Each structure stands twice: as structure tokens, then as C-alpha cells.
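Troubleshooting log. The previous run stalled partway through. Resubmitting the same two chains, unchanged.
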Amino acid sequence: MLAVWRVGGSEQRDSGRMAELISEDLIQDDIARFSARYEVSGSDAFLAAEMDALGSDYQANGYTTMAQAMALGRVLDLEPGQRLVDVGAGCGWPGLHLAKTFGCHVISVDVVDEGTAASRDRAIIDGIAGRSWSIQASATLLPLRPRSVDAVVHSDVMC
Amino acid sequence: MAPDERRKANKLGPTAVAVPTSYPSLLVTAGFDDAVATDVTAEYRATQQRWIDATERQRPGIVAAIGEPEYADRVLRRRGTLDAIDAGLLARFLYTARR
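Second attempt completed without errors. Output:
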């Protein structure tokens, strides 16, 4: 089962422009931009803004709210023992929260090193380090065996 | 979408989100079926407005972290995104699918 929060107007964009958008140079620019963002997104002011906007405090800056994250967990019917993959997890939102709330395992995947490091640290704080893994990888080359997970979330991220 | 509208959507949409084709077709290619799309654009707009309000409330701390020029750019971008949502150039969907 997979649930995706898809944001943007890409369906209306032409394929030539999209090919340009996902060029390797741009992806590297995005990684650099997110690295810089994650370096400051844990500050008190950013976390306070995130709490007001999303209801979360996972250094997120997208659009998946707490209510939507909980809805994802219910749609995916997450249960203890299941494996959830959060593709493009950033610093762990919403995958870590879903694991904490629904008792499942979570594999947080992101291409940005600062994000996976923050996700690992947050899993310890949330008390779920024993059932949480943070992997630095691209969504196009996930280091996972076929059929090795039960659910996937993917929200507000590069593809 | 007219070329100038497309340029505006590209500029104001999430820069880290890009796919070379439609999302439903990607799901099919990946082996998922029974995809259901739910339009959550209204929540998207509300969340963007909350981000703007919250960012302005936290202005001193955020400016201290990233500087005034970057702060101004971020607020300007979020306001532009809000305008693009209102103009129908940007939308948000929840897709659920099984395989």
C-alpha cells in the first residue's frame, strides 16, 4: 500500500521542462539547498513556526500536517511489526511520527545527509531507535529487497 | 496552461518536486493499481497561509538564523505560492494505491 501527498502543478507541465527540472545539476542544487536548510531548521524559531503551520516539530517545511499524517497512518492501516518506508523523509517527518504512533518499523530514506543524521537523532529522542533505520539513498535506487516492506509514504519531495 | 502561466507555476511550485510524467502514470509504471486521487488543495492553501503567519510571528529568531535577505525571499516565495494556488496554477493531491 502506498500513500502519496503530491503537491504542485506538474501534471500541467510539459515533459521537456520537467526533464530539465530533474537534471543532475538541479538535483545537486536541491541537495545543497536542503543541507543548508536542515542546518538551521532545528532552531527554536523554525520549530515554533513548524508547530504553528503543521502541528509537528520534525524540522519539516512542507505541507503535510499532523492531521494528514495521522490520516496516512489510518489509510495505510499501520500496525506493530509492519515495515513502513518514508521516501524523501528529510529529518523524519512524517515517517518517524507514524512509527511512534502506530508501533510499526520505519525506514527513512533521503538523499540529504543532514536529513538522515537528524532522523537518526530524532528516532533516539522518540524512543524508537530499535525499530527505525535512516538510509541515505535516492528514491530511484532504493537499497531494499522487493516485497520487503508493507507500506510506503512519500510526501513533498523530489523524485 | 499558457506558457507564462506554466513558467509561474514552475517558479512558485515546490522546487524539490519534479516528475517527467503524470503521477498516476508513475504509480502504474511502478506496479501499483487502484490509485485514488483526493484533491487536498484547500488544505494546501490553508497550510501555506499558516506558514506565512507563523514565519512572520517568528521573524526575529528566523532572521537571526538565516539573515534578512533570505527571510524576505522565503516570505515572498510563500506569498507567491499562495497567489498561484488562488490562480489555479498549483494544486495538491493525495494518491493512495496498492500493489
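Takeaways: Chain B has one domain: 3-98. The beta strands of chain B are 33-39, 91-98.
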